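testing teh design pipeline on a random one, pls ignore if ur not involved
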């Protein structure tokens, strides 16, 4: 059986590791958010130009879609980590 002191030390290390992971994911999400804003602005700028080539519009839309997908995947990781942490604290 683990002593209370050792268990507290293990949980403190686990909390620290979880905090580091959450910070890393939040940083990645912010980068994805900024990339999606830039991609949306580029797409909207091209879309407003009547002389823009369809290929350029398609490429800009693809960049926007990829940026949004990355952001969604990172948010899913954040939510899974939050659910895991809440499960540990409640259970």
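output:
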């Amino acid at each position: 059986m683990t002593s209370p002191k050792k268990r507290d030390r293990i949980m403190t290390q686990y909390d620290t590791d979880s905090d580091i992971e959450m910070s890393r994911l939040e940083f990645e999400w912010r980068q994805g958010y900024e990339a999606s804003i830039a991609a949306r602005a580029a797409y909207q700028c091209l879309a407003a130009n009547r002389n823009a080539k369809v290929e350029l519009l398609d490429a800009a839309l693809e960049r926007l879609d990829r940026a949004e997908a990355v952001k969604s995947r990172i948010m899913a990781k954040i939510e899974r980590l939050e659910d895991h942490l809440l499960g540990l604290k409640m259970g």
